[in-house]
């Protein structure tokens, strides 16, 4: 059953106006004699399509903005965030000041003074800028939101008729990396790595599960859940990862116990044996090749090849005896 949401807004003339938004059931409105300032808190997830109420919309609504508004804004890392200042007409603005306090950092300010058309800024983060020119829009924009942008942002708008304030508590969301794998003894492991805030993990079907969390220095958290299924009838499991940035489901199929054991045996014994055998065969072949080369070199050294020297065409001759010349000599 829905309940009534009641807003009390104080006008600048100190009169009270009651605005009620009704759903299915009306609730009686109770007010005290003492005046109080409404602290309106809004929870939502922002995206790049954020828009702020401009002067034209204010005039159409014929309403004055509350003097103080508190907003809790959740933005996913990497997106663009627009922080709206108080929705007051630009024509009445005199001074706009954004006070920014990031986690673990000192306060810094961006300001615009209409009378002198001057801006001031002592913030060092270049990713935090005006949406456009401050004389055209008092709103703030954060480009490529990072974890370091987590913190408090306050817009203070001073006008002729009053002082308005819009406070933001910015929470940066980081989408975790989800994965699932099988371990020993019919156990499945599901991980949600480096999420902000920590993700939630559940299983279908449920088993004997143990969940652990590990925090990191940047504020992200890794969640690891291991589920054991001793019942051999479970053939497949599904891991459900729930997170503010979106939900995911991952599935894994168990191998039959016989196949699983054979696979473990193959990995533990057969593969190492094959590796050892290959090493032995390679060593024997290397040794044989080495011995063969040494024998061939020794044989070549024992039987040297003598090359004949090149002979000159007149270096040798053949003597022949002629009987005719021998007879003449004797006479």
Automatic annotation (TrEMBL):
Its main location: membrane. GO terms for biological process: regulation of neuroinflammatory response. Keywords: Disulfide bond, Glycoprotein, Membrane, Receptor, Signal, Transmembrane, Transmembrane helix. It is found in: Membrane. GO terms for molecular function: signaling receptor activity. Residues 66-171, 187-251 form the Ig-like domain. It comes from the Eukaryota. It is a single-pass type I membrane protein. GO terms for cellular component: external side of plasma membrane. This is Cell surface glycoprotein CD200 receptor 1. It comes from Octodon degus. The lineage of its organism: Eukaryota, Metazoa, Chordata, Craniata, Vertebrata. The gene is LOC101567766.
């Amino acid at each position: 059953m829905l309940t009534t949401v009641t807003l009390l807004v104080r006008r600048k003339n100190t009169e009270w106006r009651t605005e009620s938004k009704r759903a299915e059931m009306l609730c009686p409105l109770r007010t005290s004699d003492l005046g109080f300032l409404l602290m309106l808190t809004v929870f939502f997830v922002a995206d790049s399509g954020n828009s702020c109420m401009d002067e034209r919309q204010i005039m159409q609504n014929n309403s004055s903005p509350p003097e103080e508004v508190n907003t809790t804004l959740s933005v996913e890392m990497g997106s663009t965030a627009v922080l709206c200042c108080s929705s007051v007409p630009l024509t009445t603005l005199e001074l706009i000041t954004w006070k920014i306090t990031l986690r673990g950092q000192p306060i810094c300010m961006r300001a615009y003074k209409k009378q002198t058309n001057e801006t001031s800024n002592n913030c060092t983060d270049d990713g935090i800028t005006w949406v456009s020119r401050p004389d055209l829009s008092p709103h703030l924009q954060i480009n490529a939101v990072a974890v370091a942008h987590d913190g408090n942002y306050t817009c203070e708008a001073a006008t002729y008729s009053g002082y308005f304030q819009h406070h933001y508590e910015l929470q940066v969301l980081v989408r975790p990396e989800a994965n699932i794998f099988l371990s020993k003894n019919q156990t499945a492991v599901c991980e949600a790595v480096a999420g902000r805030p920590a993700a939630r993990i559940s299983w279908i079907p449920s088993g004997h599960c143990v969940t652990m969390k590990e925090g990191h220095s940047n504020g992200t958290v890794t969640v690891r859940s291991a589920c054991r299924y001793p019942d051999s009838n479970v053939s497949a499991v599904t891991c459900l990862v729930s997170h503010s940035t979106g939900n995911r489901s991952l599935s894994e199929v168990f191998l039959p116990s016989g196949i699983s054991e054979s696979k473990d045996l193959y990995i533990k014994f057969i593969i190492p044996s094959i590796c050892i055998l290959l090493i032995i065969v390679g060593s024997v072949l290397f040794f044989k090749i080495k011995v063969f080369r040494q024998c061939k070199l020794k044989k070549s050294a024992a039987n040297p090849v003598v090359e004949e020297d090149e002979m000159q065409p007149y270096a040798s001759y053949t003597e022949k005896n002629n009987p005719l010349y021998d007879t003449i000599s004797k006479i």
